[in-house]
Amino acid sequence: MNNSSAYSQSPYQQDILAADYEQTTLSFAADEQGPVIATLVRKKASKQTSKAVLYIHGFLDYFFQTQMAEQFNQHGYDFYALDLHKYGRSYRTGQTFYDVRQLSEYDAEITAALEIIATEKHHHIVLAGHSTGGLITTLYAAHHPNHPFIKALWNNSPFYDFNTNIFKKKLALPRVSALGKRFPKLKFPSELNPWYTKSLHKDFYGEWDFNLNWKPTHYPKVYLSFIHAIYEAQKEIHMGAKLTIPALIMHSHQSKNPKRWGTEVQNSDVILSVKDIEKYANKLQGDVSVMTIKNGIHDLVLSAAPVRAEVYQNLFTWLKEKID
């Protein structure tokens, strides 16, 4: 993707979620697959506010977590979410879903979203991310230490390391990443737990409704380009990236890799290692709080009702202490 910050913005229109959600399309310079599009979704609080949040989704994902938006609204924040290019609302026919060579490709659309949010009279912005989005937001905050409007960072199970054994981390991953730089279209087994998305969707075992074309239940192989982009980005986290804003990093109390359906799917992170998240969150330099959520799943805000209630209580208590 062309990393130029030049973009055009369409007028807001009603979003796919509900009448009180709006979306605007951000168009950037085309790449080899055609138009590069990002989609900014917003839901305004009932009263005018100078506070806002910008949420970045994870891999195989897009924004659909309406309860999270409502919680931010109830606590006096206008809510914004970005569907990154080639994800969700931003995907266009003929493109490769989730295609990326380096995570800095997303900087232009995050910067554009922040500009729009600031133009809409917000000067206290919380940057938030889940999983891969948490890795992206951490690095964005580290690379923009003097941003005038970003006041805090909240990450929900950020992708700070690959969930694999020490042998693969030390020997295999560097080689696979190097291969991904040269041959980005090669594929590699994803090793993603097959029960995760089924545990969420109402048509299987969950309570949520979302587009299974945009967040699929099955994704057996991943492009090496993605592995390369993540691996290179994680190096900076592992060295202890420096943050100049307060950060809250949340994760479940346990990770599991169940082979069949059971309670472990519903009370564990079955995608990432919580020990890795904790280890590398604690290496970040700055005012960083690391918090364990008992019985949380990978996307903590989609956990069982009592668990996600704890997530929100802790989050807004922390925000009140740090920036309100």
Number of strands: 12
Number of domains: 1
Structural class call reads: alpha/beta
**What CATH architecture label applies?**
3-Layer(aba) Sandwich
Distance between the termini: 37 Å
Low-confidence stretches: none
CATH class: Alpha Beta
Helix-strand pattern: EEEEEHEHEHEHEHEHEHHEH
Query: Can you say what the CATH homologous superfamily is?
Result: Alpha/Beta hydrolase fold, catalytic domain
Using only CA atoms, what is the Rg? Answer: 18 Å
The percent range for helix content is 25-40%
Strand content: 15-25%
Provide the residue-averaged pLDDT.
Answer: 95
Please provide a written account of the structure.
This protein is α/β, with parallel strands linked by helices and 324 residues long. The protein has a single domain, classed as Alpha/Beta hydrolase fold, catalytic domain (Rossmann fold, 3-Layer(aba) Sandwich). 31% of the residues lie in helices and 21% in strands. It is built from nine helices and twelve strands. The protein has helices spanning 66-74, 107-119, 132-143, 166-182, 196-200, 224-238, 263-266, 274-281, 305-322, and strands spanning 8-9, 13-14, 22-31, 34-43, 51-56, 78-83, 124-130, 150-156, 187-189, 221-223, 247-252, 288-293. The strands form two sheets. Strands 1, 2, 3, 4, 5, 6, 7, 8, 11 and 12 form a ten-stranded mixed β-sheet that branches. A two-stranded antiparallel ribbon has the order 9-10. Strand 5, helix 1 and strand 6 form a beta-alpha-beta unit. Helix 3 (132-143) packs across helix 6. The N and C termini lie far apart (37 Å). The model has no long low-confidence stretch (mean pLDDT 95).
